Amino acid sequence: VQQGNRLSFKSSAPYIPQYVTSNLTATSDPASTYANRVQGRQLLLENPVRDVQKRKEDEVKRRKILEEGKRRKLRGIGKREAKEKGVWKMEKDQAQYRLFIPLHRLWMSYMSELLALNPPPAAGIVPTSRSIPSSQAMFPKLVKADFHGAVISVCQSKNPCLVGIRGIIIHETENAFKVITKSNAVKLLPKQNSVFTLAIPLYSTLPASHSARMPLPLPDTGDISETTVLDRPHFEFELYGNQFRFRSAERAGRKFKHKETIEL
What we know:
Layout: E1 2-3, E2 6-7, H1 15-23, H2 30-37, H3 48-75, H4 79-85, H5 101-114, H6 135-142, E3 151-157, E4 166-172, E5 176-180, E6 186-190, E7 194-201, E8 234-240, H7 248-252
Antiparallel strand pairs: 1-2, 3-4, 3-7, 4-5, 5-6, 7-8
Helix pairs in contact: 1-2
């Protein structure tokens, strides 16, 4: 019956009792079950315990997302993000050989400390075999070392255009070395099917007052000479690119085994 703007419904059989009794199929007398357990009682149609538990689970998920975001910020940018931001792109005015000489000198100091090289002999003293480090002891350290700043050259390659290229490593990836040559040219040298020559200083370039607990001394930026490891006593190692196709960070934690090779 409509009274003004309000509607009222009347029925001889109320909806809720009829709905409940019709769904009580597990009992033989639904009417008595409804009268004893439902009629005249206040029933909670929601589960507050479940709602509280769900809120706690949502709070835990939200905290995990925030912690993961913080870890990403501390971890730094990834490979894809670095490529999008152009981290490894070099401007033309930055591609100058002399700008990377300090990096090379810092790398020589790093090698001096890593390989525990002896200081150069005093003037007039003939060096002995004991003052020269053992190359066998260097191999396990060199395969795990960081080569950014090292001077390498291509001594053999299936691509004859690469043979003879020499420069300072400015970026190493899994499959290539990026070097800058004395002619201020940036070259990408693939590791596959190439053999490289790596020059290591024969004597330590660290000052006599340096100790293992001290940080490496920064190179003198006022020195404009372009002297490298090739201008002082040094010895050379050959790197087989096919066996060296790893990122520098991966090499640090990798176990290398001695293997004979017959490939280029």
